[in-house]
Here is the input.
Amino acid sequence: MKTCLLFPVFFSLCFIAHAQNADSLSVVKQVDSLIQVSRTLTDKQDFDKALEANAAAENLALEKLVRESAAYGSCAHNHGRVFSYKGDYLEAEKWYLEAKSIREKVLGKEHPDYAASLSNLASIYALMGNNEKALPLQIEAKAIREKVLGKEHPNYISSLNGLAVNYMAMSNYEKAEPIYIEAKATHEKVLGKQHFDYVLILTNFAVLYLNMGNYEKAEPLLLEAKAIQEKVLGKEHPFHAQILNSLSYLYMVMGNYEKAELLQLDARAIQEKVLGKEHPDYAQILNFLACLYAEMGNYEKAEPLHLEAKAIREKVLGKEHPAYAESLSNLATLYRAMGNYEKAEPLQLEAKAIREKVLGKEHPDYAESMNNLAVLYMAMGNFEKAEPPFLEARAILEKVIGKERPNYAKSLKNLANLYSAMGNYGKAEPLYKELTQVDQSLLEKAVRHLSDRELDSYLKKFSESQNQALSFVQLSASKKVVPACYDNSLFYKGFLLQAAGQIKRLALSDTAAAEKFNLMKSYERRLGIQYTRPIVERDSADVAELEAKADALAKELARTVTGFGEALRQVNWQEVQATLKPGEAAIEFVNFRFSEKKQPVEEMYAALVLLPGNSQPTFVSLFEEKQLDSLLGAAGERKSDYVKQLYSIADRGIVIGGKPHKTLYEVIWQQLEKELVGTKTIYFSPSGLLHRLNLAAIPIGIDSVLGDRYQLVELGSTRQSVVPNQVKSTANDAILFGGIQYDADSTSIAKAIALIDSVSIASRGELSFFYTDSTLRVGTWGSLPFTDREVGNLERILKTAGIQTQTRRAYTATEESFKTIGAGGKPSPRILHIATHGFFYPDPKTEGTQQSALGGEPIFKISDHPMIRSGLILAGANHAWKTGKPFKPGMEDGILTAYEISQMNLSNTELVVLSACETGLGDIQGNEGVYGLQRAFKIAGAKYLIMSLWQVPDKQTSLLMTAFYKKWLEEKMEIPEAFRAAQKELRDAGLDPYQWAGFVLVE
Here is the structure.
């Protein structure tokens, strides 16, 4: 407000100064003074007053000098600059041409001012979409400045930037990149970083990398440009909006739509306020925002934005501008997605014609038009018409931008899907194989610059390629794509989990990196506090800040930790096969969305079977998910009668057409038997609903189960046979939790906490509290008397085996005591055994039970974070369970969430036993598997994990655990062998599956 009031005063003073000093100043200096006023006003977006000041300079020059003078040439040049800023490119071109003509005649072709005219005229042609006309002007300007001013002059650096922009617009990325590198380095050396021109170079450099698909290089440049821009020119400058727009595009292509939308809305508000609604830059923001909404499936929001952007570009830029063609193409793509093919086709054809005329046939934008047109024809069922433009688009992209780019991958996928739909499987096969390699290359780059949260979003964009490849194999019975599908499974399954584990291991082995890693974890622990609070009690600003800080550190670690790239090297099926001995097999179970022409989409399950000596993996189609889902969901709660029937040979099976049909063995395993002849040991990785089952307990006869026929070893991915878990415990100790008192007792709790001298009040302040409505009454957790006996028996067994043992019972089994494990640089124990209640609540969005966190349900039941909806119950937890608050301020609440466990360091722990109910459950999220306690302990670093799939009775759990430890420690069996033997012992004793099959071992 204050600045606006000063503008007219400042302007008047300039004229007064001019009048008063007319006698003492030369006319040229007076003209230059007015031009500088005009330039200042232009930079502040006050175009009317800028033109007024420049007109005064022009009139003075004409009055005192001649039209063909250097001073008048400067006036004409500045007129062009003002109109360029306004977005009136035709008017700008007129003035720049006049300035160029005057300067050439008066100053000659080797004068810096003549070079400036060439450079600015080239910029206008570039903005008008005529890069062919701009390029020679930029080259000439650069040559003049290099000769006259030298390579360290600001104007020469400006020429570098302009020339690189031209090459980038013409898709000549190989020429543009080294020029940007030179411009950035020279500007940094000569003028420093705190300068608008440096921001311009950084931003354009980042846009180049965005166009090239090098997102890992683009983001740090944009973030640096944004920080400098805010400091130098503030947040309400149009260029700040351009930076936000570029960042938003980056986050959109990475799948982070929420972050992208916030940035786009900010950019739109800035441009509307500063430039108005009829400026090309405002139209650009509208266009990107519309594309974002279309990507999100919000077509109602996208359409009016596309129409508005198109109207602005038509009015301001004309119908032959590339930006207008972009609006046509994007609007056509939206109509195609909405099923309105009649509207889409003429728009797409018009866009193609403009791009062909203005940009030529070897431009990526023309290739995009061909691709979009082909996708439209494919959607219309006109496959023959779709093929030629698909082929042309692929050829252009391969030639112009290369094969390792997102646009090329999209072209491959579209063409492969077309041939698959046409039944031309021979042509589709090599395309699917090539797509696998390109996708993996793109993701390998992404993991080196994205945080976990961002990677999670980005990974979802790749799942469709695996779906389509598996659907193709299912449909065509093709064997050639199966090896690529196995490699895909090795690559994608548990990708985020693997990356997190490697970052942690490598960071903690390096002092400098360890400081950053520990700081990141402290931010995430503080986030845990916020995540477990009701929405009304959360500090949203604090959450956003903590997430941003944690993400920034995660990215920095991914970029800088020594050996991270090598540690994430990808494994192929041949390497897995090389680890298999005679009589062994590896199976990757997969589930995928299968769609066939005129058939509804189904979720299918299949097995990729790998045997030693075979030429390649084998694809075995298994079942539709609805078949297994009908069985798993048929009885609602996992009660004993339901489990007994599920794991029995009785007449109970999948419900199809209202009648029982097939047993678990027939649905899941029977089709595999012919592939496994002579096999005794199977390393397998489950997928989807198979995470809910104990495959070894599936009956194959009255007195036998699958575990009798095969030694089944469950892995997160068969990749682990090549790259095993790195845990090598250096200790021989154990910590046991059991016989826990869940009701709060002030005296006992206070004494217990006093014993935990390794946890300071300050550090406890970072740990997670639990708050809900104080009137909440949701029942309490009952005592588990056999858990006290269980840990007592285990304590004796462990001590006999020479293992130092701590047992935390009753009120000493607090959340505070649990969080001291592995803290403060002290290694975690070799064995961690937890006998207590566990909980898991399904995603309320999918279950239809979402309720407000303002009251009625605690946040860990309705949170959108799956690691908050899963956890363990420790001492005194009933108070928080009933009231939503810890027993006393500053204390933990006794409800230990999976998220909190994931922040711990259990990298020295060989075995975690969760002797609690339903600890193996959690949200199943695509290739990442189960999000819950299982994932939490794996992120924390544990090697082996024993957990439960349903509520196993207290007494039988105690029997199983005692038997397991005896066989492991006294009989010296390996952990997997001891676990199988313990379950067999209970089965041989006559216990039914409900009492012994609920526990599974995962490595």
